[in-house]
Specification:
Length: about 475
Amino acid sequence: MLAIAVASFVVGAVVRVLAAQNDLWFDEVWTLQLLRERVHSFGDVFTNLKHSNNHHLCSLWMWLVGQNASALVYRLPFVLASIGTVALAGFIGARRSWLEGCIAVILTSWSYLLIHFGTEARGYSLAIFFALLAWYALQQFEERRSWIWTIVFWSAVVLGFLAHLEFVICFAGLAAWALWRLARHRSKWRQGVLDLFALFTVPVVLLLAFYFVAIRGMEVARGDPYRLWPLLIKTASYMFGGPGSGAVAGIIALLAVASIYVVLVYLMFERDDRWIFYAVVIVVPLVVIAIQRPEQLYVRYFIISVAVSLVLLSSGYAALLRRGVAGLGIGLTLLAVFVAGNAVNTGNLLRFGRGHYLAALHFMEKNSGGREVVITSDHDFRNAMLVNYYKRYLERPDYIRYMDGPALDAEYGRAKGTSLGAEWLILHRFDLREHPERVTDHFGNNYQLMTIYRYSDLSGWNWLLYRNLNRPPVTPHSPLLQ
């Protein structure tokens, strides 16, 4: 099992580096724009960029490397954190046994969700890393009561919140487990209270300062509408290596929930109080949703719960593998299915990335009828930002022009209803259930589908490229080109 774990770690590290080299997607590009507009010093990241798209540690790094770095450079710290998460999962599992540690490494190495969100310039990868580091440090402190582990715990908690506010889920689990340990050892209550103060006072004070300086009054961006149950099913299915939708996804999601429940019960019967931490981190997001359904919800908002679930499941796998020949066979089969399913999903990420925006612009530049390339779309804010970011990499960036809705309306008015419209129309879609061959804009101009540039899922979107039929003809390319 050790050899499989080492091989998985190496494969996982290589795949993460490869997955970090595709196009930046909208949220990453948006961060760069916000930094360019509002941040002129280190402190501005905290005081002048009170925006929900600001993941503070991520923004600091992107501000430091500037506006012209490559995708891999922007994502490098987060790739390293994702690789470090695999090692930390192994250390946490190895506290119980080498077998559990090896399984934790295998699960986290191959996890599609950890690879996906661990290879983009957002705060999720760092939040996961610091969540596991805080959990590991708290357990180490419980055994040794060393100031070294106290400082590690402080650092992990504070940096976790700076990475992403989703870290509050982990913090709730850490606090619940610490309080349980205090209640369980009531004969040492005085020492327990002192330990709680030692562990939590400094982080809480610093986090209060962080809230009043950088969070209070934050502007929250609007998101897309969502359907709750399909989103939860997608999260659970992807966690186990299943598809993102459909009947199979529903079955795998049920198996994932059942597996987590069984392992939690197993830990309870073994009088292993780690179940408290795991249960809180996994259940709290669901309780919050049940109490007050948020306006925005994405799979990535559950990513800390996913990572913690994988560490939890390593305990279940290890227990199963020890149950004789039958348990060994079932456990290895389930592990192989997990690896294969996640490998398929990761393959889609490597193939389609988070969108092929630069390739799409190259296509439009190459196939335009005139020197100027005039583009419009179904969502000015999103698509204009991507067009204006990526056009710098084209042969004729000065001749790439995005026309938003008001500009098209003004041109139509000046032309007294005879405007030909933009040459290219981009429709952005999160799925490809509908991709009509022809569309008509509200000025009456007809557009023909030329090609489709796909994305994998979760981050980004598909681009459907349509060309104005009033322009000189161009041979359509096969849909799903990329």
